[in-house]
């Protein structure tokens, strides 16, 4: 094979080698993205397995009924005599700066309690002087959507910490665990299948890359030998 043919062959092999290396880099990038996706899937499963939910404890002697209810305003009041309130601007009609809330869903109430945007109050013992005691006027005790249609004027209500209340149960929410595990296992199987395919593809490319590298080395030796023989008379 002549000098020019060897050079052409070398250029072709070099281009092929670069193409293979580009493919290998793409596979590595895909595997990196899959690793990130695996971490995301694991985090989603972990969050679902460790998420918590607030329940209202409802004593019952009927074994067919659950003792735990969602933290709706009606369940809080009927089972613990607790009202849900939020802070509002103080006014002449409402000097306490609190307003009763009764039209929020369970998720909104739980979110508000956990984030400190909503509070629970219960009727306070008038013989004690608790700095956390607040007063509702009749207007604010009987707002639209409230649990109490009428509230006694000047009745004192004491703020209750939901974390220490025996009426509120903060428990792991196992209702979504089965679905979360199924989603996790399905997603991981898909990831494993994709990863296996990439590994096979990577092995094939590495084999080709090794063969091309060896051929490049051979062609380089031939070119070097041809060069030495062609120009040895000039040295």
Entry summary:
With 235 residues, this protein is of the alpha+beta class.
Strand and helix layout:
Layout (H helix, E strand, L loop, with lengths): L2 H48 L1 E6 L10 E3 L2 H8 L2 E5 L10 E4 L4 H9 L3 E6 L9 E3 L2 H4 L14 E5 L7 E5 L4 H55 L4
Antiparallel strand pairs: 1-2, 1-8, 3-4, 3-5, 5-7, 6-7
Helix pairs in contact: 1-5
- Compressed to H and E, one letter per element, the order equals HEEHEEHEEHEEH
- Runs with pLDDT <50, length 5+? 137-147, 149-154
Helix vs. strand class:
alpha+beta
In terms of quaternary structure, the protein is single chain
Can you describe this structure?
With 235 residues, the chain is α+β, with helices and mostly antiparallel strands. The protein has 2 domains: 3-51 and 176-234; 53-172, no CATH class. The protein is 53% helix and 16% strand. Strands 4-3-5-7-6 form a 5-stranded antiparallel beta sheet. Strands 2-1-8 form a 3-stranded antiparallel beta sheet. Helix 1 (3-50) runs antiparallel to helix 5. The chain is rod-shaped. The two termini are 24 Å apart. Residues 137-147 and 149-154 have low confidence and may be disordered.
